[in-house]
Write a structure and sequence with these properties.
Number of strands: 32
Number of domains: 3
Structural class: mainly beta
Number of helices: 6
Distance between the termini: 62 Å
Strand content: 35-45%
Length: 487
């Protein structure tokens, strides 16, 4: 009976790893070692280990005789959990250390990591890895694994590799660092650092581009953003000279990423001091609204919508990568920022990802925020729930869940954007769709929207929205022009 239980665990993990409700797994041959990448939402069940019947376990990589797993795990869970790493040992070595077993015959030393956490990123190495709770209530967790299988190959992986193409696509400069100017603003009396990537107004885009010596793109689709969903940025048009968008005091924001209503998409509100009024620096929306109420200044809502992702805010900042070496396997995991200099030169260095425009032209884009929480945390980003409400004004971005191995976020070929710079339908907000080959062995390189439509019409691929718990996967991923210094 206990042996059947172990087999059931392996079968359950097989079902988890090789189903694709959102993010596909990826296996690529590497000699006697197998590369594995996948993202998946798991649901726990009763821990089958002896003495753990009132506890919950979601096994990520199941034990298999002669197999060792190692890599990086990123996870977020619905309640406090711990990561359990199992190491197969001889029964004679089990005395004096925590162990896990289902039959008192096969024994695993048990290591607990990140106890009491609801999310995190860590390195692991062992015979098995799972997410565990000492409570009896069921939990869910979204996990991403980027690692290796070494030694004996579990049968479920041997079978799977027969169905997966091992063709590799290596693009030159698939991911590159790019420096973007930082601006300093205010929120609630404290400093905020942000970037400006896109504007619905071409005049505003050109003005800011000239001032910051970095190209702000025109994004016409931003003008159709639902007004009630937008954050506000207050821009002074007279008064005290400074580094604000119009050359006066620093801009003031209505929200930061710590607020549930925050979005990087802001409507510009002009602030103008009245004639004869003594200008002073105002560093909060409260101060601005109070001055407006007493007639000291006037507020004018504009039709200019800008993408202004915040990098540092009063109680947080975007994650800076621990692993600074960029590769096809790591560029989307653990953070999208390589460096922040907000003291001297005022810039932030993002990872720029290569892809294709709808007509096959090379594009580069950065990723600044996303939703839902699981994919956002995997990329080291803030979860920005309000982005989910912008799907009607988002451009399509197609990523691949199987086929040719490459530098895409799921380990396969780079993605294809549904619009590009200069298009009337361009927006920095992206709605992710998954392209899946019916037979990955027959996968070919797709480079434009016509390729996707043709293969779909032939029944060789399926295209569907990437969903997590029925929610669209939305990211702020503005296309950028690479400066000549990066060329």
């Amino acid at each position: 009976m206990n042996r059947l239980l172990v087999a059931a665990i392996v079968a359950a993990v097989a079902g988890v790893i090789f189903s694709i409700p959102l993010l596909s797994d990826h296996l690529a041959s590497a000699g006697t070692v197998k590369k594995i990448q996948f993202t998946q939402t798991l649901t726990s069940s009763e821990d089958p280990g002896l003495g753990h019947s009132n506890e919950q376990l979601a096994m990520i990589l199941a034990p298999n005789n002669g197999t060792l797993y190692d890599g990086i795990l990123t996870y977020t869970a619905s309640e406090p959990v711990e990561i359990v790493v199992l190491h197969k040992i001889d029964k004679s070595d089990s005395k004096g250390q925590p162990v896990w077993t289902v039959d008192n015959s096969t024994i695993y030393a048990r290591t607990i990591l990140n106890s009491g956490s609801t999310g995190g990123t860590l390195d692991f190495a062992g015979s098995a890895i799972g997410i565990h709770s000492t409570n009896s209530s069921q939990f869910t967790a979204t996990i991403s694994v980027d690692g290796w299988i070494r030694g004996a190959m579990p049968e479920l992986f041997q079978n799977a590799t027969k169905m997966i193409s091992v063709n590799n696509l290596k693009l030159s400069r698939a991911e590159i660092p790019v420096k973007i100017p930082l601006h300093e603003g205010f929120y609630n009396g404290k400093q905020v650092y942000y970037i400006i990537t896109d504007s619905s107004n071409s005049d505003a885009a050109n003005q800011i581009s000239s001032k910051q010596n970095w190209k702000v793109e025109v994004a016409p689709l931003l003008a159709k953003s639902p007004q009630k969903l937008l954050s506000k940025v207050y821009v002074f048009t007279n008064g005290i000279s400074g580094n604000g968008t119009e050359g006066y005091q620093n801009d003031v924001f209505s929200d930061t990423p710590s607020n549930k209503n925050y979005t990087p998409i802001n409507v510009v509100v002009h602030v103008k001091w009245g004639v004869g009024r003594t200008a002073q620096v105002l560093n909060s929306t409260q101060d601005i609204l109070a001055a407006n109420a007493t007639g000291k200044l006037t507020l004018s809502a504009t039709d200019t919508i800008m993408n202004m992702p915040q990098i540092i805010w009063p109680d947080g900042q975007l994650s800076v990568r621990n692993n600074m070496e960029l590769s096809d396997q790591t560029s989307y995991i653990g953070g999208q920022i390589l460096d922040i200099d907000n003291a001297i030169h005022k810039y932030v260095t993002f990872v720029a990802h290569r892809g294709w425009g709808p007509d096959g032209k090379t594009i580069y884009y950065i990723v600044t925020s996303g939703t839902p929480e699981g994919p956002a945390k995997m990329m080291g980003l803030m979860n920005t729930p309000a982005l989910a409400l912008f799907s009607s004004t988002a451009r399509d971005l197609y990523h691949f869940s199987n086929g040719i191995s490459g530098g895409g976020p799921f380990g396969f070929q780079e993605g294809i954007s549904g619009s590009q710079l200069g298009d009337s339908s361009y927006s920095p907000i992206c709605k992710i769709s998954l392209v899946t080959w019916g037979d990955s062995k027959s996968a070919t390189l797709l480079e434009n929207i016509d390729d996707i439509n043709f293969e779909k019409s032939q029944g060789r691929i399926t295209v569907q929205p990437a969903l997590v718990y029925s929610n669209n996967y939305i990211i702020d991923c503005p296309i950028i022009e690479i400066p000549k210094s990066n060329s």
